[in-house]
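Quiz preparation item.
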């Protein structure tokens, strides 16, 4: 059995830099036409000039003959100025601004500490420039239970933000809860959307502990209860236009995951399309896969849909245990397991 769909885009991707960038970008470029590239490098990509430089690095790392198009983002800080948003829009290469609450995830220490106080003029300029705000939707108060941080963020930050700036386009990134599903579904179509990862569709929090501590299933936002996973699957396979593909593929060298204080992030780029197809196939909704992977994202961003196609074949294949590089190894999601759907490059 084969399924041919419009070539997808990845609306939430971590490509890193230096050796890691060169190692991982071919995996994304082989399946996806475009990707929203996250800006949480060290130092963060906080200016248009830095975004242009980073994009040039990505283009140099691409295999020859690849038409992959990295769509850049800016890292929002307490010091970001409205003029930077104007520069970003004029650049033609920056497509969104990313909100990391300070301390929420990998390399987020430079993130926002006071969204409504220090960032309001920037947000108002984003409305004028029709520049989407991409939100890592978790509070960082250490007194809040880690499994409740998305729900509390919606209540204390996101709902007030939408009420204050109803014209601001917002993407709630890598949603993990029924609360997020309900919030996005309650918002006006075209104003608030959400990206969804393979891990939050396929795994619940048991996957962190089965057979021992599983560092390669550790990501932020952390995996949640089964009821939340089921709610997300139901939402994305319903045909709603508000949800779209964003892998949050986040590579780390193996020893940075398998250590006393391991990094958050799941490397899904090589297997993501196979896993999304698995989800939709098991839900009896393969007819809705293409909209989720290839239509809803560009429609939300106001960009043209891709004209290129990709074919998925139902043919069992084994995911490599590791990908080996000169600097070390990266363990992919579902390492060593057999998947049923495979993209044909």
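Solution:
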């Amino acid at each position: 059995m084969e399924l041919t769909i419009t070539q997808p885009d990845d609306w939430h991707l971590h490509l890193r830099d230096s050796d890691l960038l060169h190692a991982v970008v071919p995996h994304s470029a082989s399946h996806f036409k475009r990707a929203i590239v996250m800006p949480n490098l060290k130092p963060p990509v906080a200016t248009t000039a830095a975004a242009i430089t980073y994009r040039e690095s990505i283009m140099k790392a691409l295999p020859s003959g690849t038409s992959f198009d990295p769509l850049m983002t800016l890292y929002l800080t307490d010091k970001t100025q409205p003029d930077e948003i104007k520069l970003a829009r004029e650049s033609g290469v920056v497509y969104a601004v990313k909100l990391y609450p300070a301390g929420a995830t990998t390399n987020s220490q430079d993130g926002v500490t006071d969204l409504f106080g220090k960032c309001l003029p920037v947000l108002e300029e984003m409305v004028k420039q029709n520049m989407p705000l991409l939100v890592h939707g978790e509070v960082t108060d250490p007194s809040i239970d880690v499994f409740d941080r998305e729900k509390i963020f919606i209540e204390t930050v996101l709902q007030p933000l939408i009420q204050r700036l109803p014209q601001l386009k917002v993407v709630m990134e890598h949603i993990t809860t029924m609360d997020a599903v309900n919030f996005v579904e309650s918002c006006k179509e075209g104003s608030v959307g959400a990206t969804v990862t393979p891990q939050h569709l396929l795994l619940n929090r048991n996957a962190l502990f089965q057979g021992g501590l599983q560092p390669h299933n550790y990501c932020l936002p952390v995996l949640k209860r089964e009821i939340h996973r089921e709610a997300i699957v139901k939402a994305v396979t319903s045909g709603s236009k508000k949800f779209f593909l964003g892998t949050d593929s986040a590579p780390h060298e193996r020893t940075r995951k398998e250590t006393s204080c391991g990094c958050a992030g799941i490397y899904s780029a090589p297997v993501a399309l196979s896993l999304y197809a698995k989800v939709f196939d098991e839900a009896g909704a393969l007819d809705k896969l293409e909209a989720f992977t290839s239509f809803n994202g560009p429609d939300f961003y106001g960009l043209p849909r891709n004209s290129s196609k990709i074919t998925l074949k139902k043919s069992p294949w084994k995911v490599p245990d590791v990908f080996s590089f000169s600097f070390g190894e990266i363990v992919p999601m579902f390492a060593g397991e057999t998947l049923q759907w495979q993209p044909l490059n």
